[in-house]
Amino acid sequence: MSNLSFILGRKIRLIIYTLRIPYFYTLDYILQFLKFSNWIKKNKYQFKEVFEERTDLYKYINNKIIKNKKITYLEFGVANGDSFKEWINFNSNKKSFFFGFDTFTGLPEDYVNPFYNLSKGNFSQNGNIPKLKDKRHKFYKGLIQKTLPIFLKKFKKPEYLVVNVDVDLYSATMFILCNLKDYIPKNNIFIFDEFATGIHEFRAFKDFVDSYRIKYKLISSSNDCYSRVAIKFII
Ligand SMILES: C[S@@+](CC[C@H](N)C(=O)[O-])C[C@H]1O[C@@H](n2cnc3c(N)ncnc32)[C@H](O)[C@@H]1O
Q: Which of 119-123's residues contact partners 24+ apart within 8 Å by CB, and which partners?
């Protein structure tokens, strides 16, 4: 970098700082969406299948990729248990086990989006956990930032790990990925439910893989603009 561009850079920073130009969330959102859409365009050839519905995505992953083998399934963001129940029904292997993490009192912070906002408390189940007949499950109630470290104290790297990230927020997604990093086995699938938002789950995923220099392979996707994606980390 030349001396001139270095001085110019400092001057521009100083001007912006002095003018106290506010942070434009919408601009940030658009820039992140551009980042996401360019990344998708570059990588989407890797998707073997793209489905309309997430149910079909789940079925494909379980039947064709996992082949209904024994899995350890972790779901972050359970709410009323719709996606959790689908997974426990699809994977009928008796040795599989399913863990769900949620406050069950809704989002712990506002989810800001220029097109629609979800405020703190959205998705609240009033503290009630979903009721399931299938015994192969356990729920952890509370902030993931509190429950996940406790859960991991006794957790061993499983043979096949399936993680469904549906927390919507950057903060929790980043926390989950960084904390699970050392527990990811060779056989793994991570599903992100709100990937296309760009500013939250995708941003956390990109920050995570770039920071830890982790390679990955795209497996399959569903919904418009690749909103849901299934990814395998190359461990
Ligand atoms: C979109 S909903 C989950 C929907 C569910 N997976 C389904 O499809 O049926 C998002 C959930 O993430 C939970 N959540 C977000 N951040 C969290 C955090 N830091 N700790 C615990 N739960 C969190 C919220 O409570 C909310 O229930």
A: 123/77, 123/79, 123/80
12 lies in some domain = no
60 in a domain, yes or no?
A: yes
For position 2, what pLDDT does the model report? Answer: 77
Pocket test for ligand 1, best of 87, 144, 167 (most atoms within 8 A of CB): 167
Average pLDDT, 10 consecutive residues per value, the chain (235 residues): 86 90 89 94 93 95 98 98 98 98 97 85 98 98 98 97 97 98 98 92 97 97 89 97
Does a structural domain hold residue 3? no
In a domain, residue 17? The reply is no
Number of structural domains found in the chain: 1
CATH number at residue 117: 3.40.50.150
Residue 122 in tokens:
């959205």
Query: Quick one: pLDDT at residue 112?
Result: 82
CA distance 64 to 57: 10
Q: Are 191 and 224 in contact (CB under 8 A)?
A: no
pLDDT at 1: 59
Which range marks the domain in which residue 42 is found? 25-234
Q: In what order do the strands lie in the sheet with 187-192?
A: 49-51, 215-222, 228-234, 187-192, 160-165, 72-76, 97-102, 137-141
Pocket of ligand 1 (CB under 6 A): 77-80, 82-83, 102-103, 106-108, 123, 143-145, 166-169, 172
Alpha helices by DSSP H, listed for 135-193, are 144-153, 170-180
Distances (CA, A) of 137 to 46, 72, 123, 153, 182: 32, 10, 21, 18, 23
